[in-house]
Amino acid sequence: MGVRFLLDGEIVEIGEVDPTATLLDHLRYRMARTGTKEGCAEGDCGACTVLVGQLDRRGESVDWRAVNACILFLPMLNGKALLTVESLAPKGALNPLQACMAQNGSSQCGFCTPGFVMSLYGRCVGAKGHTLPVADIIAGNLCRCTGYGPILAAADTVDHLDRDDDPVIAALKQLNASDVVSGEYEGRRWFVPKTSAALADLLAENPDARLVAGATDVGLWVTKGLRMIEKLIFVGDIDDMASIGESSKGLTIGAAVRYADAHEALARLHPDLGELTRRIGGLQVRNAATVGGNIANGSPIGDGPPALIALGAELTLRSASGRRTMPLEAYFIAYGKQDRQPGEFVESIHIPRPGADDIVHISKLSRRFDSDITAVCGAFKLTVHDGIICAARIAFGGMAATPARAGGCEAALVGAPFTYATIERAADALKADYEPLTDVRGSSAYRREASANLLLRLWYRAQGEAVSVLELGAANG
Asked: Which domains does the chain carry?
């Protein structure tokens, strides 16, 4: 069995599919759709942006989302619809957005232009993330020529385009809807399960398979590391793991929920969590990356885990033999090692809602504000009652081999009055909690000093002072 998808409303079938062949390479070298460019091959520049659509959960409309074709593996496209920049002008006549960009100088060298067009076209037709400010929508698209001003002006001029998706809906319903789609290429195998039960059975039979959700990290293993992966299970299309349960107690997020879809619910849980989510890559990355994949991957610089650990999140793992739940911090054992047994997968995560006495602060430091990897991410939750710190949960990313809590700092806080002197003592204790490394994102000394300063940020925030770029802008605006 191969991969079947829609391109401009027509079904495309690929019989034998290399499981790690990228959509970008297939478009350029097999389909001669060269408008989609390769700039970075790591999901960072947006030159390869395309729109991918799939039926919503009721089967009544198409959910379009802008994604990076350079790190999207072909099996991940199965059962979906695809639009490239060529799709917008099938007979050579530019659509209104393209014409506006051409007329007002929104393109100079032109290399990045198709990616910008696709991101902005997604906004015009109501794709995922389209309610964000335009600057956020194109934060994952880089341009070295225009200064972005003419591009933003074009977006202001053309912000809506009508689109008839009825033919796409009908065609998508015809595509393969079996519980598992699979294929083999030169001895390497791949599977796309549609239910968590099917995933559990597959993993029981193939415990050595590599699970792939959005491929925003694994994609780089292939495009940059040139790794050969023998067996893959793609989990991004498991519908019963793509729901968000929201209650007075908190959020329960399925592992297959993409960050773009979780953004609003996370922001309602706490604004800092929403702001952190907004800065996880560009929109194309958040349209692919999943909450569960960010956790399961176990990266020491993953943005989500430190914040969720500080908020007291619990993780549910599932296998063919059952489920087990653990505190999220217990999942991370050592660099590259997590508490996941053969046949197990991350099914969901529960995040408690902060209480009335809780003070929460989450900060991410990176060399570039948007679309950059974390140097240090600090997350704090202090429970303060009658001026006394009754409980403290503090976690950092980028400070150790895993996302980890700061035990010494927490001990210095609990039972002490919530005063600047207490925060200063805790900041000194924090410097002994980790032995951070030195790398291209920051030295060990920088990370120690920065982590302590992030704790001080919590104090100033609690006193009503602006501590971030956005808050300073609001205060001055």
From this structure: 1-177 (3.10.20.30), 239-352 (3.30.465.10), 358-474 (3.30.390.50)
